[in-house]
Design a protein that fits this description.
The chain is α+β, with helices and mostly antiparallel strands. It is built from seven helices and six strands; from the N terminus they run αββααβαββαααβ. α4 packs antiparallel against α5 and α6 packs across α7. The longest helix is centred in the N-terminal third of the chain and has 23 residues.
Length: 183
Amino acid sequence: MPNDSDNKISRNEILISTLHEIETVKKNLTIEVGTLLSPNGKIIKEWEGDDESVSIPIEDYKNKSLWENNIYTHNHIIGLHFSVDDIERFCELSLSELRISIPSNSFFSIIKKKGFYTKLANEVMRDKVGSFSKGMELAINRGLVFNDNDFADKLYRLRIEHAHNWFENNAAKYNYIYEKGEL
């Protein structure tokens, strides 16, 4: 007779298999698609977007119980790491894991560890990673020209690069697991 630990292993295998299947398909799409999954690998909901973002209806976004402790995965067709919007969504919606897949056959994941103090970690993440003022500080330090036609795009990419670097160096300190893997 299977015991509880056997069930946990099965659920983990199902979740890993489901994530791999979803992310392998999404990585080559020309639009962003987001999928919300339960911790046991069941698909809860899926949303389509355009070439820059996933379109989540406001009623779904505001339904905190839909998101809490679940896993959200989506693709980035331009092949970049987590956007600042992704990080804000991860904090606000109390997801247990946020993932992206990119065309280079890779994925990125942010996972909250058990015992994690949401408010403090979220404040730190917003302040150190996601704030607009932090982005502007980085732009000034890099010598980006404000009247450059590509300034907004350069700032966006700079903030994404900064978020990736910050997570690689600081995730464990704030009780996160941050990883990059191959699909």
